[in-house]
Specification:
The chain is of the alpha+beta class and about 110 residues long. The chain has helices at about 5-20, 50-55, 60-85; strands at about 30-35, 35-45, 90-95, 100-110.
């Protein structure tokens, strides 16, 4: 089973993968492990360009760009989590909240990892 102190290992891994695809890391990243789930909240994830596009009314363009970036990053997040936990991910959700400049991830495993 995964110990709660491994939240830090997951946090560092997610930040590294995020930086690889976005070019900058989030300002703050929280990780919580709860039963079969890993929940990740990244704050201050938007670049200056993305913020400018959103304020000019181009949120759809930023959403499209972020979705294209997210596809390969999510594969890496999943592989990383399965390696760290030794458990299989059966489902996941990712969502941007541009109003609060956050990105959320929820990964659901086939077994309790807590």
């Amino acid at each position: 089973m995964l110990a709660l102190n491994n939240e830090q290992v997951i946090r560092e891994g997610f930040i590294k993968i995020f930086k690889k695809y976005v070019g900058k890391g989030p300002q703050n990243t929280e990780v919580r492990i709860f039963k079969k789930m890993v929940i990740v909240i990244m704050q201050c994830v938007l670049t200056s360009l993305e913020k400018n596009l959103i304020s000019a009314g181009n949120e759809e363009a930023v959403t499209e760009i972020r979705n294209k970036i997210a596809e390969p990053a999510i594969v890496e997040y999943k592989n990383f989590l399965e390696e760290v936990t030794s458990k299989k991910i059966v489902d996941m959700m990712a969502k941007n909240n541009f109003a609060s400049d956050e990105r959320y991830y929820v990964f659901i495993f086939d077994e309790n990892i807590e």
